[in-house]
Amino acid sequence: MRRILLRRIPGGLVEAVERSAGEEVPAVVARVPLEELPDHVRGHEGAAVRWVWDDTTRWYPGLLAAGVRVQRCTDLRLSHAVLRRSPAVDQALLAGTDTPGWDALAPAGDADAALFPLADPADALDAAAEDARQQAALAASPQRGRLALLLAAESSGALTAAEMTAAGLPWRADVHDRLLTDLLGPRPAGGARPAVLERLAGEIRTGLAAPRLNPDSPVELLRALQHAGLPVEDTRSWTLERIEHPAVPAVLEYKRLARLLAANGWAWLDTWARDGRFRPTFLPGGVVTGRWASSGGGALSVPTVVRPAAVADDGWRLVVADVAQLEPRVLAGMSGDTAMAEAARAADLYEGMVAGGAVATRTEAKLGILGAMYGGTRGESGRMLPRLARRYPRAIGLVEEAARAGERGEVVTTLLGRGSPPPTGAWAQRPVDLGEAPEESAPRADRDRDRRAWGRFTRNFVVQGTGAEWALCWLADLRNRLWELGEGRLEHRPHLVFFLHDEVLVHTPEELAPAVVTAVHASAAEAGRLLFGSFGVDFPLDVAVVRSWADAG
DNA sequence: CTGACTTGCGCC
DNA sequence: AAAGGGCGCAAGTCAG
After folding, report:
1. What's the CA–C1' distance between A217 and B1, in Å?
2. CB-strand contact A223/B, under 7 Å
3. Domain check: are A503 and A453 in the same one?
4. Domain check: are A190 and A255 in the same one?
5. pLDDT score of A343
6. CA–CA distance from A312 to each of A161, A178, A486 (Å)?
7. What are residue A170's DSSP bridge partners?
8. Are A54 and A149 members of one domain?
9. Which residue of A286, A300, A415, A442 has the fewest CB atoms within a 10 Å radius of its CB?
10. Cα angle vertex A52, ends A169, A7, to 5°?
């Protein structure tokens, strides 16, 4: 496999650098003007090549806009972040004069590009030197196999993220508008309150005897509720749901619709649904656990009520696939818990736990497992824990040990070796005090609470992070398979358009939908093999071929 | 007035 | 005895 490193050099040029076998120093193999880069890259894509660059967000959108798709890359920014946090990496091998620059390097946003086109901090960094350090650090790591897989998956995710933004999720503004009008009334002029909200506001004012109440103000609303004699300390929906009062249903309905208007109303449509596509920015590695973050339009929390507006183009379909109970299955695999893996053979893991005799009901199974993964021990989920621990000792033991490690201030890692951030709280700054004067008991209680909170974070980190790794492998393999299903430009073939932690949306010509369904399943199986080898854990998918996202599931 | 913080809620 | 993970976003709130 050729590894060709691209770097920007003064004069609007791009230099391609490659190290031949047996040579220490890489040689410049090409020097082209930026505008000729797409043709240059396209010319090499027929053969096996991995492009190495500082940051996918700085290279790939331009290539995609020119109609060039690449098979593989190494994203030095993302790889750097992983290696810097890995306990299995000798940090001395990563140290260089511009290491702080790599630490601080942020993905390029549109705003940055527009405002400071000439002052990109990435241009002060030596990508070839960083690549050499990363390769050396990786080669010397006892975990190089797993880390190499993680870096490849992370880099592939960076490509996928850019491709999904370029393609966009098909979005029908007319469908969305009709949906808003049905729920809220016609779009009002200016920033006025839609008719349905205005009517509900009136009902609330009457019901609470507060004629000038603005229901959008939590402070005013809380005062009005308390003045009406209701025993509430906040205005959250789940608080109000438990209150018997004639005005409460109107308040809840108002909050539900006001939320829709504010988050995914007409303003959202104007801003985010341009040219029939929703194009958020996906940020691989944007969450400490390795999950993706996003920016723009609240992409990772598109409410189900507006999903009817995500509609495939004419003659096309959406293939919507999600994994049932990803994280418990990942936990079974990473802990090597054969009993839990047995339960995971059921399409519904929780039913599998019931069948295995661990618990009596599906509800108990779900509560217990979620509690074990999140650190919830209150009520039902806490009562389930001892039974789960007896039945699934390795799985429960793994998350318990992650929690204890976090409480000790230690770093924990995912299966592929992503390290948790070191704790920063005051409690972690010195060893646990063995004895303290009584007057210091309050700060000590604070420290213990913070310590437990960090334990819950590390407990969840190992599972959420490994789940993110499974999903990355799934996505990467699926991306490869989809490319093989069609011809021509990326957006003329079946292609990924959305990714939501454990769910993918593929936009595909109708006649290729069955092949996409096959590919989605095959990739899930491959992801399981990549992470867990011969230790069999099933990752069953719910897959739907639909016109609209809302028709899935 | 702006900017930082809080509240509340959508998703996994 | 108590102990619920990770995000993004908009509007309200409040200090400077």
Report:
1. 21
2. no
3. no
4. yes
5. 95
6. 19, 17, 17
7. A277
8. yes
9. A442
10. 105
Question: Are A43 and A69 in contact, with CB atoms under 8 Å apart?
Answer: no
pLDDT tens digit string along A393-411?
A: 999 999 999 999 999 999 9
Between the alpha carbon of residue A374 and those of residues A385, A417, A463, the distances in Å are 12, 20, 9
Dihedral in degrees, nearest 10, Cα atoms A88, A90, A91, A92: 180
Cβ contact A15:A40 at 8 Å: no
For residues A278 and A263, is the Cβ–Cβ distance under 8 A?
no
Question: Contact at 8 Å (CB) between A96 and A130?
Answer: yes
Single out the residue in A407, A432, A461 at which a domain terminates. Answer: A461
When pLDDT is averaged across residues A366-387 and rounded to a whole number, the result is 86
In this structure, what token pair is assigned to residue A344?
A: 């995971």
Which DSSP category does A313 fall into? P
Q: Identify the domain containing residue A528 by its residue range.
A: 282-325+469-552
Is residue A372 assigned to a domain? yes
Q: Is residue A244 part of a domain?
A: yes
Footprint of strand C on the protein (CB under 7 A): A 214, 216-220, 262-263, 267-268, 283, 286-289, 291, 293-301, 370, 374-379, 382, 452-453, 456-457, 460-461, 464
Domain assignment present for residue A275? The answer is no
What CATH number is associated with residue A495? 3.30.70.370
* Residue A258 in tokens: 């006001």
The answer to whether the beta carbons of residues A419 and A86 sit under 8 Å apart is yes
Domain count for chain A: 4
- A2-9 and A49-53 as β-strands: parallel, antiparallel, unpaired? parallel
CA A137 to chain centre: 27
For the stretch A258-300, pLDDT in tens is 999 999 999 999 999 989 999 999 999 999 999 999 998 999 9
C chain positions with any atom within 7 Å of a protein CB: 2-14
CA A218 to C1' C14, in angstroms, rounded, equals 14
Residue whose Cα is closest to the C1' of C12: A217
Does A534 contact strand B, using a CB cutoff of 7 Å?
Answer: no
Q: Which residues contact A16 (CB under 8 A, 6 or more apart)?
A: A4, A5, A6, A28, A29, A30, A31, A32, A40
Quick one: A123 and A242 in the same domain? Answer: no
Final residue belonging to a domain, choices A122, A141, A166:
A166
A358 CB burial (10 A radius; 0-12, 13-18, 19+): buried
Q: A133-145 burial string, b = 16+ CB within 10 Å, else e?
A: bbbebbeebebbe
- Calculate the angstrom distance between C1' of C16 and CA of A302: 36
Measured in residues, chain A has a length of 553
Q: Band the pLDDT of A436: cuts 50, 70, 90.
A: low
Q: Is the CB of A235 under 7 A from strand B?
A: yes
Q: How far is the CA of A30 from the C1' of C7 (A)?
A: 42
